[in-house]
Specification:
methylisocitrate lyase activity; 2 domains; Isocitrate_lyase_ph_CS; 14 helices; TIM Barrel; Pyrv/PenolPyrv_kinase-like_dom; alpha/beta
Length: 303
């Protein structure tokens, strides 16, 4: 089996491809995306923070929170690369190095590091604080050096949030400097026009550029085809699962509170969300087959 980072590099090496990554944040949403046939997943930091801590994405998630979640998701299918948010690296150069080693050990194929202060905020909120360029580059350098020490691979994605405060040219200059010291992919967060999206891809070519497609965020909406036409090589959808889950559970909570029932109005929909259907979605069939193959009898007659 090809290592996940190697698999991701193979996808990036095909200039005719754009890698589409649905944003997942737990085992169930990851399984749903895997079952749909996506060839790469993205672990959203906001989703991880909300689901594990019940808090907003304001820099409160730790390395342990993120690595444990990433390792669980990556382990569901080692054939499918996982790109994971690594925020600021969770400290100075030593901590960024530790983060790199921990993500490699967790089976993560790629991660992105940003240039916000440690007490960061979601990239589509206002008034982000940015560290000096040398501090940012020390984070990228620490990740590059740690990867070399580990004698193992991980794709390093350099993200900058500097556009809002420093402007386009300075933000792109930071990305060019990060690429020069070993970053593999560039990520300009929060651009506000499609022309800026096209321009960053042109300025940084042939380095692959990632597009963060946040529904309702400051970046204009791109379809996958539009993103590919502009020149992006990776597109992530962090809200892929968060938005639908939020809407559906809010409605279910309202129904239960007002009617005392959470029954589906549609028989087909009810069957699709039955306990057995849910268990099948997260690997019930494979688990039973594994048990039987090992000589177990508990599931020999099904469930």
């Amino acid at each position: 089996m090809m290592a996940s980072a190697k698999q991701l590099r193979a996808l990036l090496a095909d200039p005719s491809k754009i890698i589409v990554c649905p944003g997942v944040y737990d085992g169930l949403t990851a399984r749903i995306a895997l079952n749909a046939g996506f060839e790469c997943l993205y672990m959203t930091g906001a989703g991880t923070t909300m689901s594990r801590l019940g808090m907003p994405d304001l820099g409160v998630a730790t390395l342990n929170d993120m690595r444990e979640n990433a390792g669980m998701i990556a382990g569901l299918n080692r054939k499918i690369p996982l790109i994971a948010d690594a925020d600021t690296g969770y400290g100075g150069a030593l901590m960024v190095g530790r983060t790199t080693h921990q993500y490699i050990q967790a089976g993560v194929a790629a991660f992105h590091l940003e240039d916000q202060v440690v007490n960061k905020r979601c990239g589509h909120l206002r008034n982000k604080e940015i560290v000096d360029e040398e501090v940012y580059l020390s984070r990228i350098r620490a990740a590059v050096n740690a990867r070399a020490e580990a004698d193992a691979d991980i794709v390093i994605i350099a993200r900058t949030d500097a556009l809002q405060s420093l402007g386009f040219d300075s933000a792109v200059s930071r990305l060019k400097a990060a690429i020069a010291i070993g970053a593999d992919v560039a990520f300009l967060e929060g651009f506000t026009s499609k022309e800026e999206g096209r321009k960053v891809c042109q300025e940084l070519a042939p380095t692959p550029v990632l597009l963060n497609m946040v529904a309702g965020g400051v970046t204009p909406a791109f379809t996958v085809q539009e993103a590919q036409d502009v020149g992006f090589r990776i597109i992530i959808f962090p809200g892929f699962a968060l938005g639908p889950v939020f809407k559906s559970v809010v409605l279910a909570a309202k129904q239960l509170k007002e009617t005392g029932s959470v029954e589906e109005s549609d028989a087909k929909a009810e069957a699709e969300s039955s306990p057995k259907a849910l268990f099948m979605a997260v690997g019930l069939k494979e688990a039973m087959e594994f048990d039987v193959a090992a000589g177990g009898t508990m599931y020999a007659n099904g469930v």
